[in-house]
Specification:
It comes from Reichenbachiella faecimaris. This protein has 2 domains: 167 residues, Rossmann fold (3-Layer(aba) Sandwich), CATH 3.40.50; 226 residues, P-loop containing nucleotide triphosphate hydrolases (Rossmann fold, 3-Layer(aba) Sandwich). Helix content is 28%, strand content 24%. It starts with a strand and ends with a strand. A 6-stranded mixed beta sheet has the order 4-5-6-3-7-8, with helices on both faces. A 6-stranded mixed beta sheet has the order 14-15-16-11-17-18, with helices on both faces. Bound molecules: adenosine-5'-triphosphate.
């Protein structure tokens, strides 16, 4: 890359016509892995040859998690919020913004963004787009995205990546979202009779949570009854994940609060294991925890044991039920494939089946459509709607964007105010 410097004014700029400012739309989610693996391993194909020998930084879910791992191992606190908070304890949206600012300070000559705008609220998207527009005068930028909303309009060249080839586009056609009807099998029956709990399944009464003396959740009251399908939403950092971890049992702040789970007061002797048996949970970061080459079948079976990987000998019935779930999601042909080699969409469907295999009374899906393309998101929407319609399971679906075609019965919005977020419940039908 050729650069020009205005030494007198102490400002430097890169000649616009020489900078590579690319939007790359993935035509399908399965294209993402080979593209990102090539870029992470610096195995550049001809189109990316210009990245050789220059200072390239990649912002992707993987590079952020790698940074957090190193932060924890080496006690390295290179990225801190003003209040001293580490990257690990920030919300997912806050992390992306903090990691971007840190990366820009490294003065990269090229910046590769892997679905950076996905999963961000409107204000955060605007802040990040402004930062990147300024950066576009200083370095090359490659913005890899799957949803049309995530295109950066100030980047000058448009590409699609399809069949491992980069194609230049004059105008990126919006992808027509099709409602897929590929789920033909009935919802599998549970292995054992599912315990019936009285209403409400979950209730929060005037629950408040603070971190570092800052109130995050303020007087939250929320009643979740059997068979309901909730959409939980609110801006980045409003406390959605904090609220969910009070249900899943991972948050010590839940103790001493008026929370009832499955008919019992929180803190009245229930074990985390007991709660985990009743809650199917999926969050995008979980996918990256599975690093061993386990088969798709074993991944689904591991849902019975809530383990990261399969370390138990499953019963014949458990294996049979895992196959029924594979039939249900239309991926029976992948049973013996290593999970980590699959596309993001297939991994996501399998993780949902894994969360459901024990037929939990409550299924929590945290940002399940993140990183998917329109078609994959539509397939996943169909799967969730089927589980909601045919099963006994109550669903909490967390997202910033409302997926077209998703049919929640209720919504719970976290509205950020000066003294913390307050909750607003609505019935949608
Ligand atoms: N252990 C912690 N220490 C300090 N602050 C924390 C901790 N955990 C969460 N927070 C703060 O609490 C707020 C709520 O975080 P949470 O992850 O619940 O938000 P969220 O609504 O899920 O956000 P996002 O949409 O970005 O994922 C954030 O400002 C976060 O930085």
């Amino acid at each position: 890359m050729i650069r020009a410097y205005l030494r007198q004014t102490n400002v430097y700029f890169t000649m616009q016509q020489i900078n590579h400012l690319w939007n790359i739309k993935l035509s399908k989610a399965p294209e993402r892995q080979p593209l990102m693996n090539g870029l992470l391993d610096k195995k550049y194909c001809d189109a990316f040859r210009w990245l050789e020998g220059i200072h390239v930084r990649i912002i992707s879910p993987k590079t952020i998690l790698k940074f957090i791992d190193e932060e924890l191992i080496h006690d390295n606190e290179a990225i801190l919020k003003q209040n001293g908070q580490t990257l690990n304890s920030m919300s997912s949206g806050e992390r992306k913004q903090a990691f971007l600012k840190y990366t820009l300070n490294q003065k990269p000559e090229a910046l590769i963004l892997d679905h950076l705008l996905d999963n961000l609220d409107t204000m955060a998207r605007k802040r990040i787009a402004d930062l990147l527009e300024t950066q576009s005068h200083l370095s090359g930028i490659i913005n890899i995205y799957s949803r049309d909303d995530d295109r950066l309009p100030f980047l000058t060249e448009e590409f699609t990546y399809e069949s491992q080839e980069l194609k230049k586009e004059s105008l990126v056609e919006p992808v027509k979202v099709q409602t897929k009807t590929e789920i033909q099998y009935p919802l599998p029956n549970p292995l054992h009779e599912v315990s019936i709990f009285d209403n409400p399944l979950v209730s929060f009464n005037q629950v408040s949570v603070s971190y570092l003396d800052k109130c995050i959740l303020k007087n939250i009251s929320w009643v979740i009854n059997k068979g309901q399908f909730w959409h939980l939403y609110g801006p980045n950092g409003s406390g959605k994940t904090t609220l969910l971890t009070m249900i899943t049992g991972d948050n010590p702040k839940a103790y001493g609060q008026d929370i009832k789970l499955f008919g019992k007061q929180k803190g009245s002797g229930e074990t985390i294991w007991g709660i985990k048996q009743k809650v199917g949970y999926f969050t995008t970061n979980m996918t990256f925890q599975f690093k061993r080459r386990q088969t798709v079948r074993d991944m689904i079976i591991s849902g019975f044991f809530d383990s990261v990987g399969l370390y138990h000998i499953p019963s014949d019935q458990q294996i049979k039920l895992a196959h029924e779930w594979l039939d249900f999601i239309g991926l029976a042909h992948l049973a013996d494939h290593p999970f980590i080699d699959l596309s993001m969409c297939h991994q996501r469907m399998i993780m949902i089946a894994r969360a459901m295999v024990k037929h939990p009374p409550l299924l929590i899906l945290d940002e399940a459509s993140v990183d998917l393309d329109d078609e994959s998101a539509s397939l996943m929407t169909g799967l969730i709607n089927r589980i909601a319609q045919e099963g006994e399971t109550t669903i909490i679906y967390v997202s910033h964007r409302m997926e077209p075609g998703l049919n929640p019965t209720h919504s719970f919005e976290l509205v950020v105010g000066d003294g913390g977020s307050e909750g607003v419940s609505s019935s949608l039908h």
